[in-house]
Every structure is written in structure tokens, then in C-alpha cells.
Amino acid sequence: MPSRHTPVETTPRSSISSYSALLPIAVLGLAVLLVVPAEAGRGRRDRNPEPEPEPVVAPEPVVIPTLEQLFPPVLPLDPGGVPEGIANGTSQACAACHYSAADQWAESAHAGPHTVFFDTIDDMGMPACGSCHRPISQQWSATVQHVQQDASRPVLRDNGLLDLTLQAEGVTCAACHVRDGSVIAAAQSGNAPHAVLVSPELGTSGGCASCHQLTLPDALAPLYDTYGEWERSPWADAGIGCVDCHVASAADGGLSHSMPAQTGKGLSLSVQTAAREIVRGGEAISVELILQNVGAGHALPTGSPFVNWQLVTWLEGPPRGNASEPSRESEMTIMLARTLTDTAPFAVQDDTRLAPFEQREITWSAQLDLDAVQGDWSLVVELSEKVGDTARTPALRNWRFPIDVR
User: Contact 297/233 with Cβ under 8 angstroms?
Assistant: First the structure.
């Protein structure tokens, strides 16, 4: 009797195993079909690549000249070529635009040939002293070198760079404002036909020290100590530097290249006496002179030990007899000076100058003899600058106080 169930045809186990073995091959083939076209396409794109962007070049760093680069320890210096955009290296080219500053500079102690000064140092055989007054190598027909750095043993070497115009200008614009053929300024200020390198150090007191501070080899004390005097002063402690008074007035807010050096105005004088009347032939009256350095950040006077101050007091009245000049009686002289030995080690022998904010009281006995002429008399105090044995005129300051004479 036939079976109630129709037999089901089945696949032999060996056939299933064969299919399973082919499956990985099929998957691999499919992967190859998918990958190869992608790689082929990438190859076609690589044959025409996108242009690479231009590399960004970093700008050349701006080199800010340091104080040592601006003012080398040995002068004269070579400022380099004439900066591009400037006609020549003299102050005349600068004056084309900076005419106010050039006019101020022309009236300053920096400007000028300093003929008398150079005649003096030539007589002394000390050409090194001129290096600050002509600080650029083109101002010299010969450069000055020294045997074993001894300022008293100069050797001159021809440099063939003498520019008579520059020489006549003295401490000219390029002495501070040109280095390596570039214009140097302490701050950026508007557009200019030439490039400007800004060096804030140019406006510091250290720049002044290159000429206003000098110590000779083997010396015990500086020959010029203006910077050192300022550095030890309350002005330096307060952050008030050289340029604050001599270029931009700390008090007035001005700006000038005239480099005012009216140091006589830094001296305050107070005259006190118990008796304003003098009796001819009588006893002397006592006069107290109170000197104060109230306006200078350095000693008064400062700079060269060959330049000193003398303070002279006297009683001035009508001429005696047939004389045409006023009478000058009871005279007293006070020296404000710094004295060094003439030879090494150049030690300080005496220093009667006034340090910053120093006060000094001086007593003067003033009297008139019986023959003094009656009339209008004055007590006179005069401050003068003295070079060697010669007092310069006019005087730096002059004070007059009327007194009674009987």
C-alpha cells in the first residue's frame, strides 16, 4: 500500500559542502570588483592633481637695535650708507621734512664745528676727546686708535672718508638716528619716504651715556660722570630720565631737539640777613647764602672737570672819585668744582659741586670802609661758568638785592 507521505528529495551532504567552499571565493571576487574601480578612478584623478597652495612665507623679523648696537663703546662710529629715500647723510637732507627739529638742533650745543674746542685738544695732543664732538667716522680724515686703550697715546690712521659738511655739523642727525643705512627712531610717527626702525632704547638715558659718561683706562673715577650722577639720584628712582628734561620737558610736556642745557636754572639761591643796613666803617653784617640744586638730575655743574662754576658775591655802589665803573667792595668767591689728578689713576682730589637736591649754607661777612661813597648800593650774587682760569660771559645767573648804606 502506498505511503501516505510523498517522499522529499534531498541534496546530498557532499553538494552542500561544495557550495560552502565557494562562498568565500565569491565574497572575495565581489570585493575586488568594488575596490578596483575605486582605485582606478583615484589613479585617473591623480594624473591631474589640484595645484598645491603656495606656502605662506613668514615675514622677516624686525630687528630692533639694542643700546649696545646703537652706541658702540668706541667712537667714532660708521652709520652705514645713506638710507633709501634720503638725499644724503647730512642734516640738510633731514631738514627738508623735519625742519622744526633741524632748526632746534642747529641752535643746540650739539651742532657746530666746535672749532675752539678742537684747537684746544689739538694743543693738548688728546684727539680722543673729539670723538664725542665728531662721533661719525666720515667726519675724520683719520681714525683715532689708542695704544693699549690709553687715551694719552693716540695713533691716527687715514680712512679717506672725510666729509667737510658733516664735520662742520658736529653731533649731527645721523649720530643718533642712522645705523647700518637705516633710520632709527624712538617711536613710530606717521608716514615717511624712508623706512624707519623703531628702537625705544634710543629714547633712554643709556643713549646719552655713550658720550656723557667716560672712564679712562686704569682710572679710579670717571672723567665724565653725568650719567652716573643721574643714576644715583632721586630722579632716576622716580623714572625721570635725561630726555624727560633735555628733549621732552617732564614739567612742560614739550618736545625739542635744542637739547636745552640751562643748568644754571637748576640752582636755587636764597639770601638771608639779620640787618639790611650797612654802616660805613662799622661792623660787618652777616649774610647767609643758601644754595640748592633743585632742578638738575645730576651734579651742578656736571660734565668735564675742566669746566667749573664760580659764585661771586660783592657790594656794588657808586664809583669812587674819578672812576667810571661802579664800586665793587667786600668780594667773596665760591667755587663749585670737581678736581682730578692730572695723571693716572685720575683720582678725585676735591668735589664741591651740588649733588641733586643738595643744600649748602655759606656765610659771608659784608662791610664797607668809611671812604665808601654814599648812594644806591646793591648786594650782588653772580654765577659764571669757568673754563680753566677764564670765566665765560655772559654770566649764567645774576641776582641783585638793594641795601641801605649810611
Answer: yes
What does the block give as the cell for 21? 567552499
- Using an 8 Å Cβ cutoff, are 372 and 297 in contact? no
**Tell me: the pLDDT tens digits for 262-308?**
778 899 999 999 888 999 999 999 999 999 999 899 999 999 888 99
Residues forming CATH 2.60.40.3880 domain(s) in the chain: 264-405
Rounded Cα–Cα distance for residues 51 and 63 (Å): 35
- The matching CATH number, chosen from 2.60.40.3880, 3.40.30.10, 3.30.460.90, 2.60.120.400, for 264-405 is 2.60.40.3880
Q: Is 41 exposed, middle or buried (0-12, 13-18, 19+ CB in 10 A)?
A: exposed
Angle at 317 between CA 372 and CA 335, to 5 degrees: 105
DSSP bridge partners of 144: 156
345 within 8 A of 334, measured Cβ to Cβ: no
The model's pTM is 0.77
